[in-house]
Write a structure and sequence with these properties.
about 75% helix; mainly alpha
Length: about 180
């Protein structure tokens, strides 16, 4: 049995579009993950893995763990990018001031654990938006999902730059206001 059929979101969409099948959700979410620009062969394999994790509601995403807010920006989850930039920066500053502890790495663990859920909710939201607007034609729904999803390399570069600038600003302020802690 497909993992979609048991989810609350699927059941809710099924009320609006009775002909919706779990295989349709696979098709729509694949379009959402791939986007309009198309993906390389390696990216296609990773997108299949992401679809599988979204379908089974599996936590943990190595890309989100490794790249943090940059991965969120790459996957066009801009609100999540801003939230994680703030959290990562706050925890890094906390680590600089109070010393590195396990809590410094808490956002990294939470980020990876929450990405698939947040991305799944975003995809369901876009699918619901398409169906609620009266679109029932499969090709038009796929087109809507491709337009709403995909990746954004420019946003990932901007997030990396913002993160680097926030980190550099924090280090500069830390050295300026607490030189005795920095230069021992």
């Amino acid at each position: 049995m497909n993992g979609w059929s048991m989810s609350h979101e699927f059941k809710e969409l099924k009320r609006e579009l009775p002909s919706l099948a779990p295989e349709d959700v696979d098709c729509y979410f694949t379009a959402f993950i791939e986007g309009e620009q198309g993906l390389s062969e390696g990216e296609l394999r990773r997108s299949e893995h992401l679809l599988e994790k979204m379908r089974d509601e599996a936590p943990g995403n190595p890309g989100a763990n490794a790249c943090g807010p940059i991965y969120w920006a790459y996957r066009r989850c801009y609100k999540g990018t801003i939230i994680w930039l703030i959290l990562y920066t706050a925890f890094i500053y906390q680590g600089m001031f109070f010393g590195v502890s396990i809590f410094t790495f808490l956002p990294v663990l939470a980020n990876g654990a929450l990405f698939n859920y947040a991305y799944r909710m975003k995809a369901f939201k876009e699918l619901k938006r398409a169906i609620s607007s009266g679109v029932v034609d499969r090709e038009r729904i796929v087109a809507h999902m491709r337009h709403a999803g995909g990746t954004d390399s420019a946003a990932a570069y901007k997030a990396a730059l913002a993160w680097g600038l926030l980190f550099a600003l924090g280090v500069a302020l830390f050295v300026l206001f607490f030189p005795e802690r920095f230069f021992r």
